[in-house]
Automatic annotation (TrEMBL):
InterPro entries per record: Ald_DH/histidinol_DH, Ald_DH_C, Ald_DH_CS_CYS, Ald_DH_N, Aldehyde_DH_dom
A single GO molecular function term of this UniProt record: oxidoreductase activity, acting on the aldehyde or oxo group of donors, NAD or NADP as acceptor
Keywords: Oxidoreductase
Protein's recorded name: Aldehyde dehydrogenase family protein
Length: 454
């Protein structure tokens, strides 16, 4: 397998993919080691994951550089990602004892009723490339805290980062056979689906998630899917400062080149503020520096995957054929690397894929709406349900809208953010189950009910 730098198209490394046999061997080692890890007191497991976080801090420059070289995100965004992962580990380690320890529910006349949170066993984590630290940490950190052994399959586009993660986890004190990495793409994923893991935790596209869910179903083990989105954002007519709203929401759409599961993917603007908003939005986009992700100050680097350039070309061609107007960008940037101009499409509508299918790139569609009801109808007119956002000076108004939108997260005056304190979950084609929060810690456990009379 070749690791390619998306900014230069150079081959960084040739690396051997795992085979069916090597994946099977790793599985058996994980299986043998898991009970020993579970018998390590929780406080010690917590300490090991805290050590991992310290190592991330210590090596942040080298890690950011590896990440940028294989996924192409601007270096500062790679540093932000490692720091973001540390913030999640902090919350998870600080709350592990509270949510993973045995709970006494009732004590009554010699009868005690308790819940113990037992680990699932050996879990399989098939992961995505767009935020390998963040989406990885969501899974393998709580899984390890809960006493599981983990087979981690990084995306084939983030392999080197996956290997860095493995190295640092082991340096931090995770026993050698409690965490293994499976290297490769679809074929390696298939080998993992053939094995009898005790749980599957997938982050990736709806298409692959649906397939994995179907394949895992007969095993009767937990299968959790964090999938794509087409996240809507509504700008109401009472926003106080259009310029700052335009800047914040443009960042929500274009950060990491739009390659975020919770990137703002479609924007609805109240007709009273539409023209001013669009004007400020385009002004903001025009200020961004484009270029090599290793260059200081660059905000728009290359896309990670070459194939996505075609998806963006097609969305823009179709939208313009159906009456939309491109008022910024619209084209690939010539030369080496998978670069695409940040693109703003107005007069978009729901007959266009730019408003219906995940763009996962630097393209945003904007639509004018006449009132909140029309915004709600359009926000819900989607197969997805990850996040939704409302900008308004009234929390009541925003919450009234968000209550009606079928999404796992609702944002008021913010967007494109994830917090470890609250569940991260999708609805409809965005998946199901939660990571992060107390729900995300317990997702890696099976409750055992004890009814003890004596
Ligand atoms: P993808 O579905 O192409 O791949 C995801 C993983 O599945 C990779 O590791 C890949 O090798 C593996 N895979 C592919 N085919 C497989 C098969 N047949 N069997 C087993 N494994 C297989 O997704 P991607 O391009 O890596 O990630 C982008 C997608 O992930 C976007 O849709 C994005 O929105 C979504 N995502 C969601 C979240 C979330 O939290 N909801 C977070 C990040 C990314």
């Amino acid at each position: 397998m070749q690791i390619i730098n998306p900014a230069t198209e150079e081959i960084i490394k040739d690396i051997a993919e795992d085979t069916k046999e090597s994946v099977g061997d790793k599985f058996r080692l994980l299986k043998a080691a898991q009970a020993g890890w579970h018998s390590v007191p929780l406080q010690q497991r917590v300490q090991v994951l805290k050590n991992f976080s310290s190592l991330l801090e210590q090596h942040i420059e080298a890690l950011a550089s590896v990440l940028t070289s294989e996924v192409g995100k601007p270096l500062q965004q790679s540093r932000n990602e490692v720091n973001g992962a540390r913030a999640r580990i902090k919350w998870l380690t600080e709350n592990a004892e509270k949510y993973l320890s045995e709970e006494t529910m009732t004590v009554d006349k010699g009868l005690e009723e308790k819940i113990a949170y037992e680990p699932l066993g050996v879990v399989c984590n098939i992961s995505a490339w767009n935020y390998p630290y963040l989406v990885g940490v969501n899974v393998f950190v709580p899984a390890l805290l809960a006493g599981n052994a983990v087979m981690y399959k990084p995306s084939e586009y983030a392999t080197l980062t996956g290997l860095e993660i493995e190295k640092l986890l082991k340096q931090a004190g995770v026993p050698r056979d409690v965490f293994h990495v499976a290297i490769g793409g679809r074929n390696t994923g298939e080998y993992l689906l053939d094995l009898p893991f005790d749980g599957y935790f997938f982050t990736g596209s709806y298409k692959t998630g649906k397939y994995i869910y179907e394949r895992v179903a007969p095993k009767m083990v937990p299968c959790q899917c964090e999938l794509g989105g087409k996240d809507p954002l509504y700008v109401a007519d009472d926003v106080a400062d259009i310029k700052s709203v335009a800047a914040a929401t443009a960042d929500g759409a274009f950060y990491n080149n739009g390659q975020s599961c919770c990137a703002v993917e479609r924007i609805y603007v109240h007709e009273k503020v539409y023209d001013r908003y669009v004007d400020e939005f385009v002004k903001e986009v025009s200020t961004w520096k484009k270029g090599s992700p290793t260059e200081q100050g660059v905000y728009i680097g290359p896309l990670t995957r070459k194939d996505q350039l075609v998806v963006l070309d097609n969305q823009i061609t179709e939208a313009t054929q159906k009456g939309a107007t491109v008022i910024a960008g619209g084209n690939r940037i010539s030369g080496k690397g998978y670069y695409f101009e940040p693109t703003v499409v107005i007069n978009a509508n729901h007959n266009m894929s730019v408003m219906r299918e995940e763009s996962f790139g630097p393209v945003i569609g904007i639509m004018k709406v006449k009132d909140d009801d029309e915004a709600v109808t359009l926000m819900n007119d989607t197969d997805y349900g990850l996040t939704a956002s409302v900008y308004s000076s009234s929390q009541d108004r925003a919450k009234n809208i968000l209550r009606q939108v079928n999404s796992g997260t609702g944002y008021w005056n913010c967007c494109d953010r994830v917090s470890a304190a609250v569940p991260w979950s999708g609805r409809k084609h965005s998946g199901f189950g939660s990571t992060l929060s107390h729900a995300g810690l317990r997702a890696f456990t099976k409750p055992k009910a004890y009814q003890l009379r004596g």
